[in-house]
Amino acid sequence: MTSFPEHRAQSGVLMDRLVGLAGTPDDCATIETDLIVVAQVAATRIPAADSASVTGRGRDGYETVAASSDLAVVADKAQYGDDAGPCLQALTTGRPVATPLISATTAWPGLRETARQVGIRASLSIPLFTGSGRTVASLNLYSRRPGALTALSTAICEAYDPQTAHGWDHDGLDDGEREMTAGVIGALALRAMIQQAIRLLAADAPADPGSAYPRLRTRAAETGASLTDAAAQVIEEHQDR
Questions:
Q1: What predicted TM-score, i.e. pTM, was given to this entire model?
Q2: In sequence order, what DSSP letters do the residues of 165-192 get, joined into one string?
Q3: What local confidence, expressed as pLDDT, does residue 7 receive?
Q4: Which of 148, 152, 174, 232 would be a feasible disulfide site paired with 48, CB 3.0-4.6 Å?
């Protein structure tokens, strides 16, 4: 696990990393570094979060890839021990999980008790995904103040369900929260575009639809294009048919 000293993060880095991760091939060696940077920048750009971490899958199970403080590590481990909690739910379902008042939850008794002991009141876990669309980690934000993450949680959850969204309060977010929301929206849009290309390639080879993403990845590597550009090329070619 990587921990890091606090420092002021440059505006725009969080959004760039979230969108960049969504367009990164699954086998890219820089993914772990990207996850560490996301946790680092989120911890400094989101004032409502007293601690941040990233949960991933290791050889021996779930692990905390990076954390801004021991507070997040303790909260993460409580969930690993129970094999249940918001960070694991976000990782396994690919959907954000908001817990505005942890003391009121009955779903995760281990986290509830640990949170009571260390003073965590609220959390938000956000899935992080790479080029194939697979969720590889969850970004976990923890706050000592109940409801402190509510505005951000609403914005992130509505980004995943824009058709049913009532509209999040843009003015109710600070600069860092707006940047994170924009990053999540951008990452979801990029994933949708890459998935469209994967579906088109799968339709070209109905006998082996599972080869669609590897073929897109190979195409990008052989042409020296990014995965995003390769996906755009596939879509353009099919539109011209």
A1: 0.92
A2: -----GGGS-HHHHHHHHHHHHHHHHHH
A3: 47
A4: 148
Closest CA to 21 of 117, 133, 144: 133
Q: Tell me, what amino acid is at 185? A: I
Beta pairing partners, 99: 123
Contact assessment for residue 158 and residue 134, using Cβ atoms and an 8 Å cutoff: no
The single residue listed with the structure tokens 């396994």 is: 92
Report whether 43 contacts 177 (CB < 8 A). no
Question: What CATH number does the domain located at 2-191 have?
Answer: 3.30.450.40
* Mean pLDDT score of the chain: 92
Length of the chain: 241
Give the pLDDT score at 15.
95
Helix (H, G, I), strand (E, B) or coil at 98: strand
The domain segmentation of the chain, as residue ranges, is 2-191
The residue among 47, 53, 46, 76 whose CA lies nearest residue 3 is 53
Per-residue H/E/C for 6-73: CCCCCCCHHHHHHHHHHCCCCCCCCHHHHHHHHHHHHHHHCCCCCEEEEEEEECCEEEEEEECCHHHH
- The pair of structure tokens assigned to 40 is 């680092």
